[in-house]
Amino acid sequence: MMRGKGYFFKWYVALFFVFLYAPAILLPVFAFNDSSIVSFPLKGFTTKWFEVLQSTEALHVAVRNSLMIAVTTAIFSTLFGVLAARASTRFAFPARRSIMGFIMLPMVLPEIIIGVSLLVVIIQLGFELSLFTIILGHILICTPFCIAILSSAFMNLDRSLEEASIDLGQTRWNTFWMVIFPLVMPGIVASLLIAFTISLDEFIIAFFLAGTEPTLPVYIWGQLRFPQKLPSLMALGTLLLVLSISLLLLADYFRRRGLKKTGIENSGGFL
Amino acid sequence: MTQPIIQLSGVDKLYGDFQALSQIDLDIRTGEFFSLLGPSGCGKTTLLRSIAGFETPSAGSLHIDGKSMDGVPANKRPTNMVFQSYAIFPHMSVAENVAYGLKARRLPKAEIQERVSEAISMVGLQGFDSRASHALSGGQRQRVALARALVLKPRVLLLDEPLSALDKKMREQMQSELRRLQRAVGITFVLVTHDQEEALTMSDRIAVMFDGKIAQVATPQMLYGKPSSRRVGNFIGMMNFLEAEVRATSGETVEVDVQSLGRLTLPLSQAPAGVDGCQSVGIRPEMLTILAEGQTAEREIEAVVSEVFYYGDMTFYDVTLPQKDAPVTVTMRNTAGRKVLAAGDTARVGWSPVSLLLLR
Amino acid sequence: MTQPIIQLSGVDKLYGDFQALSQIDLDIRTGEFFSLLGPSGCGKTTLLRSIAGFETPSAGSLHIDGKSMDGVPANKRPTNMVFQSYAIFPHMSVAENVAYGLKARRLPKAEIQERVSEAISMVGLQGFDSRASHALSGGQRQRVALARALVLKPRVLLLDEPLSALDKKMREQMQSELRRLQRAVGITFVLVTHDQEEALTMSDRIAVMFDGKIAQVATPQMLYGKPSSRRVGNFIGMMNFLEAEVRATSGETVEVDVQSLGRLTLPLSQAPAGVDGCQSVGIRPEMLTILAEGQTAEREIEAVVSEVFYYGDMTFYDVTLPQKDAPVTVTMRNTAGRKVLAAGDTARVGWSPVSLLLLR
Amino acid sequence: MVLISPTLVFTLLMLAVPLIMVLALSFWTQSYLTLDRSFSLENYKAAWTEPMYQYLMARSLRISIFVTALTVLLAYPVAYFISFHVTPKRKAMWIFLITIPFWTSYLMRIFLWKVILGYNGVVNGSLMGLGLIEQPLSFILYNQNAVVLTLAHSWVPFAILPIFVALERVDRSLIEAAEDLGDNRLRRFLRVTLPLSMPGVIAATIIVFIPTIGDYVTPRLVGGPNGLMISNMIELQFKKANNAPLGAALAISAMAIVTCVTLVFVWMNRKFMRGPK
Amino acid sequence: ADDGLVVLDWSGYEDEGFFQKYIAQHGDAPTYSFFGEEEEAFQKLRAGFRADVSHPCSQSVSKWLEAGLLEPLDTSRIDLWDDVNAEMKEAFKFDGAYYLLPMDWGTTALTYRTDMVDMAKMDSLAVFLDPAYAGRIALPDNVDDIYALGYLANGVTDWTKATDADFEAASTWLRQAHQNVRAYWADGAELAQLMGSGEVVVSWAWSETPATMAGEGLPVEANRSTKEGSSSWFCGYVNLANGPNPEDKMYDFFNAWMDPGSAEYIVSEWGYGHGNQTAMAAIGPEGLAEAGLGPVEVPVLAQVPMNQALREKMIAEFEKIKAGF
Ligand SMILES: Nc1ncnc2c1ncn2[C@@H]1O[C@H](COP(=O)(O)OP(=O)(O)OP(=O)(O)O)[C@@H](O)[C@H]1O
Ligand SMILES: Nc1ncnc2c1ncn2[C@@H]1O[C@H](COP(=O)(O)OP(=O)(O)OP(=O)(O)O)[C@@H](O)[C@H]1O
Ligand SMILES: NCCCCN
Ligand SMILES: [Mg+2]
Ligand SMILES: [Mg+2]
Q1: Tell me, what is an example of a GO biological process annotation in this record (chain D) (predicted)?
Q2: Which residue from C141, E17, E200, E233 could staple onto E138, CB 3.0 to 4.6 Å apart?
Q3: CB contact under 8 A, D180 and C105
């Protein structure tokens, strides 16, 4: 009976991982498969689908748009996040809970509602759909995530560090740059990263608000209808996967370094 | 006496409706080791932070070194603080931490370096200069916090429970070190603590606080020997209380009927000014003695031992006196050859009227 | 003597390479209040958890009530545990917590109810039955944990530092309550603590542990009065050590040259069995006296006061003896009229050879 | 107050104002190409009485609840395994392993399920290769099963995380106490571990439930003709059907229903949270 | 891509074979944005999407015009304007201005995998209701084609004369067919995938499907001569109001499309007809027959402009049908 311990779990978890990884594993498989039909049996090895990517200009445009949107979104939502997190963890102000609740609301609103409401405003006010409107939507949905991450960073910050700095004769402004900012830096990096990735992959709002210029997911959506485009999409997906894992590992490396600098026991890991 | 370095008068602090400090009048003398002692929540930290400039009193005035501190922000006051959590900047080395305040003053590099290494050796951390501050033990962090504050040569060093995060051994060691350091630098120390032993062993003078008010300010000996109230007496060490009724006052003495002990005449020096309202006498457990066979005392009373607590060096006896329900505690030193009694034994308890205090 | 309720012999516990317990031989008697005392990390918790069944010893045997506990899981052992954190189920009320173990045994509802309310009143929590467990103070949680374990009428109650989370006042109160409870229910208590005062005041017998080994098992008086080694002596209370050299043993006595004190003859009862290897004598600070003017003692020695620690009821003096660098501590009770000395004063220190212990 | 204001103003402008406009729009009516701005409850009447909308709403709720339940059930043992059977040093790595497949395009992942479940997809291919079936199975794609499966896959890591965190927070000595008091493995799971991890379960429930009801991509890609959900209908009204007011009314109604369901979960959470803390 | 011209088109129409001349002239294809169905395009434009050119079919033009999306064509800038099918271009003359450059036309017909169906049943639209094909049929996600099917199945061959009862009957028939539908396809590529894998064996499809799939060697054929008949449609390019660019390139694009080479290409590769009547005549009846565009004996429902109110009803009803109601 002692063998029964964890036996069930090992099998369950193994099966679960098959389920979990099923789509992701297929990406590289078909990306390197020498056939324009995405199905088994495999035909042979090729890198031509990556070459196709290289020569697809519409894709490059979409990637550029998406990167622009994601970077802008990351910067602004982190900025808004820093302000809100600092305000909510450090200061008391009237109706704090309701205000914070309201700001966090997009986190618990179905994305279609956000898409719909932004679309309505844009139509009613006669604005034009553009990348700018997508950025606005993305900032709106990313800010709560940034606040969540940054709040914990600010909350972990011992308030007496700030007071110590002032006590030692520093001004408030310098205190922010010399003490608070370096210590919440890992949180800021994490926030930038999260906002960047959410924005980069966001489809529902982007599609609702898409103007002339497609984002990467909107482009992918358009391409999904063409069977002959699928293998190169697989190549694209493979690249995205490799890219984001590298980015994550890099971020985790910085996080660990940050932790080491502040001497906090490394317990968490990603998220 | 020289001018007090810190003068508070009529200081109030309100948090909303809650009065955290009320009518604080206090003078702290230049160069003394002063402690604020009181139970949790009595307002010690609030008072200390008001002096440092992190809280603004709701009323009253605060002068440091003769200058009003109205509107003077924390970073402009001649005080420095050692925080309970030490607040060591985790992203800086020991030396960077210590240099922090000097850099804020934009002193020349060479001078900063010199003063930093001086301060570091003052607290015994030579060779730790470039150690990352998270790789320090509790006691070492404590020292960094001290060095970081002292390097600025403040007029007053404020310490908020600086030892409470340390374990017992380390705490005792740091207590004598702190005391020694204070004597060496001659700076006025204001220490917040809720540990009466800490306050008694370290301070020149102590202010005992309850509920936002100062109950008594005195030297350790005075505080222990002549607490101004039952509450202070009980907070500073153990004290037995017996009901008492004042019968008459005449010149230098007062007549009292004391539960179990009968009618006594006490010198007025053993009573608070104006004896009205006094309803009990207090006696410290070590002022009572369980008399060994053949031993005598000024006064004696028969008692029954109800509980025995053996502490190795001491034994605490709870004894029941005639006409008193709650037992009285007697502490005895376990000297060689003295027999430890057991619960249920009868004992003669020796006492002396000079060790009784009439209390409100 | 009746059969021991718990018998350990040759118990080892390894965590990887690290030997947390080594060669533990221990008998715990039925009905006694037994304590495991030792510094942090010495293996107390590991030992207690091995008894409870949460750790499996790497070697050796464990019998409870005469039965081998090999392969018996924790939920089948006749022991119950009070956890350091109390481990009160936060999603259950007081009564549900107490009823937990009874429900696990599938007792009838009525019986459960009866025994629960009995246990709750035993620990003085009448009326708290339906209180949510997070709305309890530390002391109250402690009581719930006790009631929850005691209601199952275990043969042995295991307590892992049950008082360390309480503040000082509450801790002292719970100490006497625990002791009283143990006497009332007659169950064997095994208490883990690193607080020597706690062990001394509460236990019938104490096992002192260092580094995974048992150093001494004895009653509190024996432990304090006759520690088996310098390390035990220093761990249980304060002890002054003076260098010593054994000159000769003859019949019932031993001749020793002691630093500062000179040649002495001590009875063999004041030395460990076989005096070889003894290199110091120990004396408790309370066995030394600062003699008042006119007071005498069996032996006397001149000393200089180097530090004074005033504790109210006591004063601790660090005094320097001739021919000794490290100061010796003398504790004095502050009785009425006794003058407190200051650092730098000279003093006559009284002592007696019977209070010296020859130690390894 | 000054600090928070930029964020607040942005959210007010980008969320509150738009939501109010959606609300206003939902009371107007659209006929062919013209928008009638007089107040009317027509859209709500349609949204709440027309069988199609009722049915779609019910179907969406059903699918979302089903997905939520399936996701949480799938996630719990995994979270439990990581929390209780993995050495502490490895836990972060395991959590990372769980998130890896999600760092590629969301659309692509859904699409790959089409490849897996498709007529000549991986599943059918393997089953036929093994000789288990003769004809490709067609009930695994283009229906509600496929929607449920795909959504569950998309959201399962987001369910594992809160449950894992809740399990990590369960004081291990509580479980030992339960053992000490006589409970066996199963009973101490049911009486202690599970109730104490409920806040995580409920958080997971909310985290999965809300976005699944707002998703119109998954139903579109793998749902087939009978797998469409209310979000597809909202999108349709705003786009093809050219009836934004009705779309707005549907969106507001859906939001109201989601809010109600979520409040029930939050309330349950409160009930459980009252315990610890 | 050339961002001097933005084309909002059906997906698939970015095929460079259609506008070789434009590429030769400008070195690059115009920027494309795609729609799957006209209502989607209409909404996208109404929502503010800015393109220079788009590609509606005959029934939508007046709706687009009413919505203010269109600008008249400057026919003087279309070199081969005189070669344009006269009947088609005159149908879109409003207030003296032309709004549509008719460009492509084709048929929608019963299309099937010859290797996987019972050929005997392929002579009637009733196969769509046949339980034997449950889960194996695909219908277009396109309101005009779908109602063309519905009306034909009920014997209505001219939808401009359809009554409410006809509309109800068509809807009922489509509801029944819905039970058998595996997928509603939005464009040829999607249908090609469905039929190529054998997942779908019968479809109501544009003539491009048999043309392109046969090209890939897949046994797909269409039968335009089913008992109930088949449908035909024509579409063309419009000049969008509010286009982001000057119109020069737009007319270059139109002229490239009007090139006889494009006509040949669309007929041979796509199985569609072309709006350049002269070029079509040059291909000849045999060529057309070979491409599957020859005349048929059975009724043909032409997807010509119709009553907009009825069409709105169709749009709404079709959505219900697709949702299962
Ligand atoms: N910012 C605040 N807002 C409201 N009440 C406060 C605030 N700061 C302190 N208090 C209250 O004022 C009282 C005094 O607090 P203070 O921190 O000075 O106590 P303390 O004596 O230092 O106690 P401790 O020994 O626990 O640190 C407490 O009751 C506390 O709850
Ligand atoms: N699971 C484990 N793995 C490895 N080492 C352990 C484990 N549990 C305990 N130890 C080590 O065994 C030694 C004894 O631990 P134990 O908890 O018994 O000490 P303790 O005497 O109870 O100390 P404390 O008073 O601090 O609770 C310690 O050094 C500890 O680090
Ligand atoms: N290629 C587009 C055909 C549209 C038919 N209605
Ligand atoms: Mg405080
Ligand atoms: Mg322990």
Answers
A1: transmembrane transport
A2: E200
A3: no
Could you tell me if D96 and D90 are in contact, meaning their C-beta atoms sit under 8 angstroms apart? no
Instruction: Locate all alpha helices (DSSP H) within chain B, ordered by sequence.
Output: 44-52, 94-104, 109-122, 138-150, 168-185, 196-202, 220-225, 230-235
E67-96 residues touching D, CB cutoff 8 A: 67
Helix, strand and coil in chain E, % to nearest 5: 45, 20, 30
Residue labelled with tokens 């000159």: C247
Domain parsing of chain A, residue ranges? 56-261
* Minimal C-alpha gap between A222 and chain D (Å): 11
Quick check: CB of E58 below 6 Å from ligand 3?
no
Top mutation candidate among C42, C47, C159 for ligand 2, by most atoms within 8 Å of CB? C42
Looking at domain A56-261, its CATH superfamily turns out to be MetI-like (1.10.3720.10)
Using the Cβ of D214 and the Cβ atoms of chain E, whether some distance falls under 8 Å is answered with no
Q: Which residue in chain B has the smallest CA separation from A172?
A: B75
D188 CB-near residues (< 8 Å, 6+ apart): D175, D178, D179
What are the pocket residues of ligand 1 if the criterion is a CB atom closer than 6 Å to any ligand atom?
B 15, 18, 20, 38, 40-46, 194
| C15, C85, C160, C214, best to mutate for ligand 2 pocket (most atoms within 8 Å of CB) | C15
Separation CA B45–CA B195 (nearest Å): 14
Alpha-carbon dihedral D39, D40, D41, D45, rounded to 10 degrees: -160
d(CA B160, ligand 4 centre) in Å: 7
User: Tokens 């597809």 sit at which residue?
Assistant: D232
Lookup result for tokens 């769509």: E128
Q: Which residues are within 8 A (CB) of A205 and not within 5 positions of it... i.e. 6 or more apart?
A: A111, A114, A115, A118, A134, A137, A138, A141
Predicted confidence pLDDT, tens digits, chain B (360 residues): 568 999 999 999 999 899 999 999 999 999 999 999 999 889 999 999 999 999 999 999 999 999 999 999 999 999 999 998 889 998 899 999 999 999 999 999 999 999 999 999 988 898 898 888 878 888 899 899 999 999 999 999 999 998 887 777 778 888 888 898 998 889 999 999 989 999 999 999 999 999 999 999 999 999 999 999 999 999 998 899 999 999 888 888 999 999 888 899 999 888 887 778 888 999 999 899 999 888 888 899 999 998 888 888 889 999 999 888 888 999 988 876 777 888 889 999 999 988 899 998
Ligand 2 proximity of C75 Cβ (cutoff 6 Å): no
Q: Which of E88, E128, E114, E312 is nearest to E228 (CA)?
A: E128
Vertex B198: Cα angle to B192 and B202 (nearest 5) = 90
Nearest to C312 among B200, B312, B314 (CB): B200
* Predicted complex ipTM exceeds 0.90: no
Enter the tokens of residue C22: 């080594």
Least CA distance to C177: which residue of chain B?
B307
Cβ neighbours for A117, distance < 8 A, ≥ 6 positions apart: D15, D18, D19, D21, D22, D251
Nearest-CA neighbor of B31 among B158, B170, B164, B182? B182
